[in-house]
Amino acid sequence: MDARTTVTEYYDALRNGDPLGPYFAEEDDDDQFVKFGISERLVGAEEIRDGLRRQTETTTGWSVTSNALRVCERDRYAWFSDQVSMGWIDTEAATRYEFDTRWSGTLEATAGDWQFVGMHVSRASRL
User: In terms of CB atoms within 10 Å, which of 68, 75, 88, 96 comes out highest?
Assistant: First the structure.
């Protein structure tokens, strides 16, 4: 699998409510990896996985539309950027959110699999 496929499969997993943690690298050094979301900053593999698990448990009805995916891959490292229209239902607040967002991140290939080692999602504007 290549890095581009990993990014698009992550989008599919988000839409389908599948576990997202396995897409992120897991290392002993807990402060190596960072994931920025629209309203969060998760540091370290454990915090990222816990945050993603909670997100999956408390949201539903995801729409994720990639509008400008670019991926560059070199040996064991890759980086990407995208403009993504996305929305979801917060099941605890019974509220639907929709945003135009900007995504960027880095991936590393380990044992033939690509995993995110950094991700940044920021809000461009409210739809």
Answer: 88
Say if CB 8 and CB 100 are below 8 A apart: no
Question: In a 3-state reduction of DSSP, which class is residue 2?
Answer: coil
Contact present, 20 and 7 (Cβ < 8 Å)? no
How many domains does the chain contain in total? Answer: 1
CATH of the domain at 35: 3.10.450.50
Angle at 84 between CA 80 and CA 48, to 5 degrees: 65
What residue numbers bound the domain in which 42 lies? 3-126
Which tens digits make up the pLDDT trace of 25-49?
987 566 788 999 999 999 998 999 9
Q: β-pairing, 34-36 with 41-43?
A: antiparallel
74 burial (CB, 10 Å; 0-12 / 13-18 / 19+) is exposed
Sheet strands (E) in the chain: 34-36, 41-43, 59-66, 70-74, 77-90, 95-110, 113-126
pLDDT value at residue 29: 60
